[in-house]
């Protein structure tokens, strides 16, 4: 049984109308090359919004709810993926770094509670906001005890949902040290600034995101495909060849700061900060 789509009745008129209903291809799309977050001890402290956007996964079996929420959140600057059930949601969570998951409870196949049970033992996982028409106290208690970080009942205010998502994202990263250091390089992840000694590197948002990713996973060789999946949405029109361009422009700026050897190329494998 799905939550009633009419529960979006309080969504403000400013939220863009979703496109005409059609196959939800985004929900089934997950990159095979990305490593599961649970296996990477650095991912828990990593900011998945690598391009400066909050990255959100909307999980709901109602296509209208998915499309309406996705359109509204994208209009507010968020990067959004969607899933139609719990199984698709877990596939995406295992393959992409999300800040927050908006999770429905009443879905076929694998419901929201089952997703919470699967994610609960993981040390590295996104924040989870349950968005459901189930408004009983016992439902909220069960979801929170299974690891949900917040619970919002349908119908709801879109402004409140947006505010809660921002609060959850802040809470996730405030728990981690905001400063990364590697030799002469210092990265302030809160301010999104990279410095060599006391000089700020003039990096573009994408170059900064690339540098932070490589430093966070120093010692690990990251393929071009893996880096692309971390920096771009899964429906991006760009190809992973853009990573070579980013590496080149970032290296040029590092070289001016006398750090030309920071990022190594492993032919046929990828890039690494040793």
Describe this structure in words.
- This protein is α/β, with parallel strands linked by helices.
- It folds into 2 domains: 5-174, Rossmann fold (3-Layer(aba) Sandwich); 179-272, Winged helix-like DNA-binding domain superfamily/Winged helix DNA-binding domain (Arc Repressor Mutant, subunit A).
- The protein has 8 helices and 11 strands.
- The chain has helices at 63-75, 86-95, 112-119, 137-145, 158-174, 205-216, 224-231, 242-256, and strands at residues 55-59, 79-83, 100-103, 127-132, 150-153, 179-182, 185-188, 193-196, 199-200, 264-266, 270-272.
- It has a 5-stranded parallel beta sheet, with helices on both faces. It has a 4-stranded antiparallel beta sheet with strand order 6-7-8-9, covered by helices on one side.
- α2 packs parallel to α3 (112-119) and α6 crosses α8.
- The longest helix has 17 residues, at 158-174.
- Mean pLDDT is 80; it is low at 1-7 and 9-51.
């Amino acid at each position: 049984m799905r939550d009633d789509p009419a529960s979006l009745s309080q969504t403000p008129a400013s939220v863009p109308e979703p496109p005409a209903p059609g196959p939800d291809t985004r929900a089934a799309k997950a990159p095979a090359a990305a490593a599961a977050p649970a296996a990477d001890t650095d991912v828990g402290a990593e900011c998945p919004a690598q391009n400066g956007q909050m990255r959100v996964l909307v999980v709901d079996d109602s296509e209208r709810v998915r499309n309406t929420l996705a359109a509204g959140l994208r209009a507010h600057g968020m990067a959004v993926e969607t899933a139609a059930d719990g199984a698709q949601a877990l596939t995406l969570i295992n393959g992409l770094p999300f800040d927050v998951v908006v999770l429905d409870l009443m879905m076929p196949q694998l419901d929201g509670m089952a997703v919470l049970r699967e994610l609960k033992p993981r040390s590295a996982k996104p924040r989870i906001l349950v968005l459901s028409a189930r408004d009983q106290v016992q439902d909220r208690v069960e979801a929170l005890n299974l690891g949900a970080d917040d619970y919002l009942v349908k119908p709801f205010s879109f402004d409140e949902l947006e505010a809660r998502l921002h609060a959850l994202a802040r809470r996730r990263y405030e728990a981690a040290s905001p400063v990364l250091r590697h030799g002469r390089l210092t990265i302030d992840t809160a301010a999104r600034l990279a410095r060599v000694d006391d000089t700020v590197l003039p990096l573009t948002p994408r170059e900064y995101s690339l540098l932070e990713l490589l430093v966070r996973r120093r010692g690990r060789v990251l393929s071009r495909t893996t880096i692309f999946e971390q920096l771009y949405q899964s429906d991006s029109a760009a190809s992973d060849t853009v990573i070579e361009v980013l590496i080149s422009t970032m290296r040029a700026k590092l070289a001016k700061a006398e750090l030309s050897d920071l990022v190594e190329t492993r032919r046929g494998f990828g890039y690494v900060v040793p």
